[in-house]
Amino acid sequence: MARTRTPVVSGWFTEDAPGPEPGAPAGAGPASAFRLLGTRCSACTAVFFPREDAFCRNPRCPGDGVLAEVPLSPRGRVWSYTDGRYRPPAPYVSDPAVPWEPYTLIAVELEAEGIVVLGQAAPGVGVGDLAVGMEVEVVGGVLGEDDDTTWTTWRFRPLGGAS
Known about the structure:
The protein has strands at residues 4-7, 13-18, 32-41, 47-48, 67-71, 75-84, 103-110, 116-121, 135-145, 149-158. The chain is mainly β. The chain has no helices and 10 strands. A hairpin with a 5-residue loop joins strand 7 (103-110) and strand 8 (116-121). The strands form 2 sheets. It has a 5-stranded mixed beta barrel.
């Protein structure tokens, strides 16, 4: 039986934004691409991720703007990074029977928006593969699976090499 692909948080990303996949060669032509989704205020042009649908969070906004969904830059630069080497405590769900695997977190400043977004590194990318200022791209990833569902999320991967 095929599993249903379901985003871990609905409306925070899309796996089929118009445009070439991040990392595709120049001139690769139209295709669908993985993109984070944010919102932009029409009054002050501030961009938010996670998305904001109720009001503009910019304290300097003149007000009366409309918040519209926008696909965010597919690339950015490493702003900071670290690794998680411990099993999270309650209330987080973590199966103690499954061996713990460390993971790498990356804070990425998105190119066009200038905002910093946090996410896990793509599989196979560790802190030894990263450097502040390195260019990375956002890619789709899998957070977990159960019998019926593949829970999808976003990951960051260095351009030009590592997984």
